Automatic annotation (TrEMBL):
GO terms for biological process: intracellular signal transduction. The lineage of its organism: Eukaryota, Metazoa, Ecdysozoa, Arthropoda, Chelicerata. The gene is LOC100901891. This is Serine/threonine-protein kinase greatwall. InterPro entries: Kinase-like_dom_sf (IPR011009), Prot_kinase_dom (IPR000719), Ser/Thr_kinase_AS (IPR008271), Ser_Thr_kinase_AGC (IPR050236). Keywords: ATP-binding, Kinase, Nucleotide-binding, Serine/threonine-protein kinase, Transferase.
Length: 572
């Protein structure tokens, strides 16, 4: 038995013991306080109906806050159903939503206030049962009425006007077509006469449900990472949904892999580290990508990559808690039970193909298939999504490593750690340090990769690019006959009918919009400031705090009796 399997058995044994203990605590509470649990369950279900409803008057960050509250409620209800709800679940989930509110407080005050109001309502519903669970477990009681005072609800928050957040189409100049498909077209354009950007156009008729049209906007409004594509703005014109993104001076990784017939290990190692860091960031912010693959990765000279395409993203419970979260990792393998199968067939995890519960671990399976593809220029398994033979192949067959191309033990180990059939055994299902401490990456300069100073040249990347105005740039394309482009940037007309849910602008780009409006154009300095706007880095993150955020609001054991007596008197 290898070390990883042995550690997993120990962790599983510990989890079973802990779960048994939680069931015992819950049983004590449910016997004595059935009414409190029934009321809490009913009120949570009512609140969930409100938060889960999609409203087009909410901005993407507001929608994100609603989704996170909904997922917390869903987690509580599931734990009540399984009779395993504990004070630890309640504490950690409430800490998490408080940290989300902190995250928006400085950048998006409107959403922070929106979140604070929902947290206050959630606290009112759960505080009695939370104290009962703490009492049953012998833990110090949290005074939730004091915790509520931490919520930052601003009396005066300027209402956002979508119309004032968006750029005018006259400030865009279309340069060339970068790609076209069934969903629309992607162009290189110039904004404010100097800023290169990528403009994605999707005809309004293509989306029939708001949740499908808004998911990429919601993701873009929260994600901020150097290895993930940056969204500048999303808005609506009379003809199309418009997404303005950073202009990536690179090429689809799939093309490079195909041209090379598989990449050398030094290049592959750099690519896979950046991909893993992008996945970790998305997961911590509460997003499962669901379509990780080489064609959704852009590679630039120096082997720097960007993960793109948020169209199939699934919003999951985020992890803003500034310490190792036990329940966050418990959900890695089976957070959802909706049987959705979004993604590209050869990259789908076994649990998705079999319509079993799934979670963030599906992205790590896809990362394993991507690693295999990058090295060997093929995928390990092929077949039809609904084919029983293909499902059995993915679920049971050994990984078919090509014998003609040897790989290092570290690379093979990484593939095997990702391509584990049992999702709860997969890499990063119990600890995200499993990725950063993996033997494949021990010699990498992590800080240099984040700073953009660590490079590894690969000729096949620049072979796919053009060198224009002293900079690399992807060439334009011609649409295929069956992909006739019916919409262009220059043909779009502004509309005053902006939908808040589809409207987002990054702070840096909003500054550019203001300057373009005043001056009629942007300077080179403005362009450089936008393009070098830094993403978040784990090396700049706040140091992990092992403590309970609300420890200062807890009461010592000897005060619990007084509270219990006071509660009895209130009932009488």
């Amino acid at each position: 038995m290898n070390t990883k399997a042995h550690n997993y058995i120990l962790e599983l044994d510990g989890f079973k013991r802990k779960n048994k203990q939680r069931k015992f605590w819950f049983k004590r509470v449910s016997k004595r306080e059935t009414r409190a649990l029934v009321v809490m369950r009913k009120e949570l279900s009512t609140l969930m109906k409100t938060t889960k409803r999609i409203r087009v008057t909410r901005f993407p960050q507001d929608h994100y806050c609603c989704e996170e509250i909904s997922l917390v409620i869903y987690d509580f209800l599931r734990k009540i159903e399984s009779r395993t709800l504990s004070y630890e679940h309640v504490r950690e989930n409430l800490e998490n939503v408080f940290y989300i509110q902190d995250y928006f407080e400085t950048s998006v005050p409107h959403s922070a206030t929106y979140m604070a109001l929902m947290i206050a309502e959630l606290l009112t519903i759960v505080e009695e049962v939370a104290n009962l669970l703490e009492e049953a477990a012998g833990a110090n009681l949290t005074r939730w009425s004091w915790v509520r005072q931490e919520l930052k609800v601003r009396d005066k928050v300027e209402p956002l006007d979508p119309q004032n957040m968006i750029p005018l189409m006259k400030n865009f100049q279309q340069e060339k077509l970068l790609g076209a498909g069934g969903f629309g077209a992607v162009y290189k354009a110039i904004f404010g006469k100097t800023v290169c950007c990528t403009v994605k156009l999707v005809p309004i008729s293509k989306f029939k449900q708001e949740k499908h049209a808004c998911v990429d906007k919601v993701t873009a409004s929260v994600i901020c990472h150097p290895f993930v594509v940056k969204y500048y703005s999303t808005f609506t014109t009379a003809q199309a949904y418009v997404t303005v993104m950073e202009y990536i001076r690179g090429v689809d990784l799939h093309k490079v892999v195909k041209a090379e017939g598989g990449l050398d290990e030094a290049s592959s190692r750099l690519i896979l580290f950046q991909l893993g860091e992008a996945i970790l960031h998305m997961h911590s912010r509460g997003f499962i990508h669901r379509d990780v693959k080489p064609s959704n990765m852009m590679i630039m000279p120096g082997c720097r990559i960007k993960l793109i395409d948020f169209d199939t993203v699934k919003i999951s419970l985020a992890n803003f808690v500034q310490r190792m979260s036990q329940f966050y990792f418990e959900r890695s393998a089976h957070e959802f039970r909706d049987k959705e199968t979004a993604g590209t067939v050869p990259f789908l995890a076994p649990e998705v193909l079999r319509a079993h519960p799934y979670g963030r671990a599906i992205d790590w399976w896809a990362a394993g298939v991507t690693a295999f593809n990058v090295v060997f220029a093929r995928v390990p398994f092929r077949g039809e999504k609904k084919s029983k033979e293909f499902k059995d192949l993915v679920a049971n067959a050994p990984i078919p490593y090509p014998g003609e191309r040897p790989i290092s033990p570290e690379m093979r180990q990484f593939m095997e750690d990702c391509l584990v059939r049992k999702a709860s055994h997969r890499i990063c299902s119990t600890n995200e340090r499993e990725f950063r401490d993996h033997p494949l990456f021990v010699e990498l300069d992590f800080a240099g990769l984040y700073a953009g100073t660590h490079h590894h040249e690969l000729e096949s990347i620049t072979a796919e690019l053009e060198f224009v105005d002293d900079r690399w740039s992807p060439p334009g394309v011609k649409a295929k006959e069956d992909q006739r482009v019916t919409i262009e940037v220059n043909e779009l007309t502004d509309t005053e009918n902006q939908c808040a849910l589809f409207t987002y602008v990054s702070p840096a780009f909003q500054n550019c919009i203001r300057k373009a409006g005043r001056r009629g154009g942007l300077s080179q300095r403005d362009r450089d400031a936008l393009e070098t706007d830094p993403g978040e880095s784990p090396f700049d993150a706040v140091a992990l705090d092992p403590g309970y955020r609300f420890e200062k609001y807890t009461l010592e054991q000897n005060t619990r009796r007084n509270l219990r007596q006071r509660r009895r008197r209130r009932r009488e």
